[in-house]
Amino acid sequence: MGRRMSLQGIRPCEQRARRENKVQLPIRTTQDLAQTVAGCDLPTMSGIAAQLVATLSDEQADLTDLRDLIAQDPVLTAAVLRWANSPIYGTARSVNTLEAAISVLGLSRVRARAVAFFITNAFEPPLGVEREVFWTSCMHSAGYAMWLAIAAGLNESEAWLAALMVRLGELIIGRIDAPTVQAVEAAALPVQQRWQMERERIGFDEGEVMAEAARQWFFPDALVDALQKCSKPMTYMAFSPLGTVVHLAMLLADMETVDAQSLQTLPPEAVSALGLYIDWMTLHIPERSSFTEIRA
Q1: The HDOD domain covers which part of the protein (predicted)?
Q2: Exposed, middle or buried by CB within 10 Å (0-12, 13-18, 19+), for 219?
């Protein structure tokens, strides 16, 4: 039986690091960030989870490989079957086998959701973060990213996974410096101001922190790059379409209501860089109820 990511030993690394005088805030360099993230008790990647991550950049992985890998974890298997039987996919008959479930969902989508299953279940929001509100925000970001990626001709599953992962960086910040997360959550700031407050307090925002964690977990370079750039994608010389999709998705998820008026507040340079148009977006706004839940 495959085991899920270990949750043992997880605690804010801020306590240990400050006791050992190793963390000086704000963090100044990417090298210091890498050392800080490596030292803050990230969840251990299980063998199954690590192999799933490896398939994200393996174009040769096929249905049989993925089926056999997922079958090693009964909890993940049950989750995949639950996703495939969701009314969203409109299957006429009950889906009872992994092979059928993967056929319904598609290889790319199953890989992304299986990786997300392990990662999200490995993290628990710290003190000050309301659990349901947090995970709902993550799912909304992922749903909007998938919608935007399809419209922009990008990999929808990669966009879904990247957007889902961004705010996990906030949970890692909670292990680096718990008071920062408590202050950010208490302030209840709009997403861009939240990123700014994180940068002011620890030197990096949640996307940049999550990018470093993803790098250490050997996620594909394109996904790491998207996480790195997603908070301010138009400021980089090397444009990241995926990072820009994630940026817009985070803004949409932060809106109380997404409609013609609120869409006008999106940064026009980011929208146009993806070849999108506000008029088209207004006509095709997805319902948040269509965004699937992936946690156990």
Answers
A1: 42-233
A2: buried
d(CA 14, CA 35): 13
Place of tokens 């192999």: 51
Which residues are registered as beta bridge partners of 6? 44
Cα separation, 120 vs 296, whole angstroms: 9
Helix, strand, or coil (residue 249): helix
CA dihedral of residues 282, 288, 292, 296 (deg, nearest 10): 150
pLDDT in tens, 205-230: 999 999 999 999 999 999 999 999 99
Q: What is the pLDDT of residues 52-103, one digit of tens each?
A: 999 898 878 888 989 999 999 999 999 999 998 987 777 768 899 999 999 9
In a domain, 34, yes or no: yes
Full residue range of the structural domain in which residue 238 is found: 13-290
Strand partners, 44: 6
Is the alpha carbon torsion for 164, 165, 166, 169 positive or negative? positive
Give the CATH number of the domain where residue 216 resides.
1.10.3210.10
Give the pTM: 0.88
